[in-house]
Amino acid sequence: MKQIIYICLGLLLLFTSNTPIVAQEVSDYTQLSEEDYSNITLPPLSVLFENAKDNPIYEMADVKAAVERKLLAKEKRAFLGFFSLRGSYQYGTFGNESTYTDVYVEPYPTYSTQAQNGYTVGAGVSIPLDDLFDLKARVSRQKLNLKSAELEREIKYDEIKKNIIEMYAMATSQIKVLQMRSEGLVLANVQYEISEKNFANGTIESIDLATDKERQSQAREAYEKSKFELTKSLMMLEIISRTPIIRK
Question: With contact defined as beta carbons under 8 Å apart, do 153 and 130 qualify?
Fold first, then answer.
C-alpha cells in the first residue's frame, strides 16, 4: 500500500515541478583537435558536486524524501479525520394553487408563488480508539521514515561524490600523461622528418629510417591510447556530475 503512495506522490511531485526533466548531453569529443586536448581544464570539484544534484540517482532519493515529508504532514493532520461537517443549501420558487368559493361566488382558482431558500448545517465526531491511541506513534514512525529517506539521499550523494573524485583524479592524471606523450609524439615526428631528409641525401641507411618510423608509430599509438582513456574518463565525469567539461 505504501509503495502505491510513493508512486502516486512521486508522480505528483514530478508533474508539478517547475524543473523539466532533460536528457543528459555529452560533449562531442570527435570535434576536438590535439591542441584542444592540450588546453583541457577541469571545473572545480565544488561545481561538479553541486551540479551532481541533478543526477537522476540523487533526484530519485530527493523525491522519496519529499514524499515522506508530505506523508508526515498528512499524519500530523490525521486527527481531523475524527471530525466531519455536513451542510446543504436549497433555493427556489415555490408555487401554491388553490380554489375559492362560497354560496354567492362561483369557484375560481388562485395561484401564488414565493421565492424561498433554506440551509442546514451539522457536525459530527467519530473517534476510533485504536486510531486515537496510535496517532502519536504514527507521527513518530513517519518521522523515522523521513529521517531514513534523508539519510538514504545523503548516502547516494556521497556515492556520487566518490565517483566524481575517482574520475576527477583519473582525468587529471591522464591529462598530464597525454601532455607528455604529445611532446614525445612531436619529437618523434621531428626526428622522422630529419631522418627522411638524411635518407634522401644518402647519409643514413634505410634501416635507420625504418627505426625512426617505428618510433614515430609507437609514439602515435601511445598518444592515441592516452587520448582514448582521457576521453572516456571525461565523458563519464560529465554523465556523473551533469556538467559539460568541453565547451565549443
Answer: no
The sign of the torsion formed by the CA atoms of 85, 86, 91, 96 equals negative
Tens digits of residue pLDDT in 85-106? 777 777 666 566 666 666 565 6
Q: How large is the C-alpha radius of gyration of the chain? A: 39
Q: Exposure string (b/e) for 158-174, b if CB count within 10 Å is 16 or more?
A: eebbebbeebbebbeeb
Q: How far is CA 240 from the centre of its chain?
A: 12
pTM of the predicted structure, to 2 decimals: 0.72
CA angle 9, 14, 18 (to 5 degrees): 135
Inter-residue contact 244 to 47 (CB < 8 Å): no
Look at residue 24 and tell me whether its pLDDT is greater than 90. no
Distance CA 187, CA 181 (A): 10
Residue count of the chain, please give it.
248
> Which of 119, 70, 68, 65 shows the shortest CA–CA distance to 92?
119
CB 136 within 8 A of CB 188: no
CA 227 – CA 171 distance, rounded (Å): 10
DSSP 3-state assignment of 124?
strand
58 or 91, which is more confident?
58
